[in-house]
Amino acid sequence: MKLSAYIKEFEYNIRLAWPVILGMLGHTITGIIDNIMVGKLGAAELAAASLGNSMVFIAMSVGIGFSTAITPIVAQYDAEKNKEGVRTVFHHGLFLCTILGVFLFGLVWFSKPLMYLMGQPDEVVALAAPYIDWVAFSLLPMVIFQGYKQFSDGLSFTKYAMYAVIISNVINVVINYLLIYGIWIFPQLGIIGAALGTVISRVFMLVYIHYILVKNEKLKVYFTNFSLKEIKKPMLRRITSLGVPSSMQMLFEVALFTAAIWLSGFIGKSSQAANQIALSLASMTFMFAMGLSVASTIRVGNQKGLKDYNKLLLVARSIFLLAVLVEIVFALLFVIFHKYLPHFFLNMKDATLLAENTEVISIAAELLLVAAVFQISDGIQVVVLGALRGLQDVKVPTVITFISYWVVGFPISLYLGVYTSLGATGIWIGLLAGLTVAALFLYIRFNYLTKRLIVEAK
Predict the structure, then answer these.
(1) Contact 322, 386 (CB under 8 A)
(2) Is the whole-model pTM more than 0.85?
């Protein structure tokens, strides 16, 4: 197929993906601003926020991963003009997300003692424990919000979640500024202020998306007959059979990056702080691939509903190509500015912190060189996973991600990071290896399935 055929699809791909990208990017930038604000307090506070968030992110990955099961089923029913099917998926998905949000909150809250068994610096653990109490609670509104988001994404209404996230992020930044530093009449709460900002902004995010979806005339039909009596086991099983493997896929990747944070903490707080800086920047560029991954799920799900498998293959490959091009641009920017970007995260004017922060910046600059390469692999694997999710193929990809991240990636990170002089850079080389293996084998899986569908349809 000619290159022009793929490029022709770019416009619609971007139209679907950009609201998702902006929403996710806004959320990530807010996280970076959080890190910058907390980083001004010192490396210990930054490392504590990193450690606390790492535990919450593991749980959040399960919630977000599970909720992604809603999108491809909604997209398929939407293509088939099956409004009752869409309504049923939405109600059951929201029910399951609510239960899961409560469970994840409790799980994180009761898991705090694990920090003392991870070999983390005592100073960091003491700061992280109260921070986790509040941020763990924010999982409840966050996961319920995902139920609404995945539903609207499946109907190609990707802008609503973007509005909710961007406005809530503005609220988060303002509250953080007031409570971290004790501005005006507000108390100076340090990193606890950052945690409260997260809770309040996520509650607002949930309330806002419910309001804006209910007010849409085209979507009102899906909010009727909202009752527990309508909840049926067959649909719960269908969503769960897609949601559990999807959550495991995201969990395996997030847990790998979390393990990198813990390994960095084992090396020392400077490595842990540097890891957080590089991870924050890499996460920001990764949001572009995540947005394209959502577009991939929606478009592949639609074509699956229409049973147009040749078009499905064309659409998916156009998104893969677009993701690679975008990530190459970011890779070049990381290489060019790797020595300058870490300076935004630390206070270099405080003489008492200068030596410590100089070491952090030196390590972070090296990590950004590795991140420049691995984000290309990361971008490929996430958009291919999105396409496989659109095909409602989740079990084999779950096995592929587990092997890639934990049989290949983690052992390399552990050995190079802890047992060689490479330190934090060695940890990130392991991340690169795991992501590259995942990208390769997930694409092989997608290519095999689509070719088989095309042959069977003839």
Answers:
(1) no
(2) no
